[in-house]
Specification:
single chain, alpha+beta, Jelly Rolls, globular
Length: 202
């Protein structure tokens, strides 16, 4: 392998490592109005599958009536007509952090809104928040965030009858240390001989 080919390989591998912790946002603006669970969206090579226990049609994509949730949002009730549902989102890669905007169907005190993170079937952790009533808008809105050990699935729920979510911003987990070791070994195996050959020719 020539020096220039080795250099291209090193740069490509470096970019893969950098992409390992990239931020990706799922905002439903590319989904047709009326799209209902279960469905999958893919952004920047990361897939997210949205589902509920009332599928088909538990949650549906509709135009926002909120302030912090803009464009299209995903909420219940969908075509199935069911309320008090949890929304499950499964990801094709492990994540290290997630934030999203939400709104709950409350006219009185804002209901608790909970996000539980799982690595397959194992609970990694959970967090609960509540929205606030914003001037000129009917329903409480808020933001919730989770960060911790790697997870690939979240279950979103509320004691409110219905809720909507938008702007699901995720950070993919960095490779495990063992994976970095393998990448480093591969780079050395390819790069060092090429550099030696180049220095001999010089």
């Amino acid at each position: 392998m020539t020096f220039h080919k080795s250099l291209r390989f090193l740069l490509a591998a470096s970019s893969l490592c950098a992409a390992a912790s990239a931020s990706t946002i799922f905002n439903f603006d590319g989904d047709s109005l009326g799209t209902s669970t279960k469905f999958t969206d893919t952004v920047n090579g990361l897939s997210a599958t949205f589902s509920s226990d009332a599928d088909p049609g538990g949650f549906v994509v509709y135009t926002s009536i909120f302030q912090t949730l803009t464009g299209n949002v995903l909420g219940d009730p969908g075509p199935a007509g069911a309320s008090n549902l949890a929304l499950t989102v499964g990801f094709s890669q492990n994540l290290s952090a997630l934030t999203l905007n939400f709104a709950t169907d409350d006219f009185g005190s804002p209901s608790p809104f909970t996000l539980a993170a799982y690595e397959n079937a194992t609970l990694v952790g959970s967090t609960t928040s509540a929205g606030n009533f914003l001037s000129g808008f009917t329903f409480p809105e808020g933001e919730i965030a989770f960060a911790g050990n790697a997870f690939n699935r979240v279950v979103i729920s509320s004691t409110a009858t219905d809720f909507a979510v938008d702007n699901i911003n995720v950070i993919t987990a960095a490779p495990e240390p063992a994976e970095f070791g393998l990448i480093g070994t591969a780079l050395l195996a390819v790069g060092v001989p090429a550099l030696r050959r180049r220095s001999k020719r010089s």
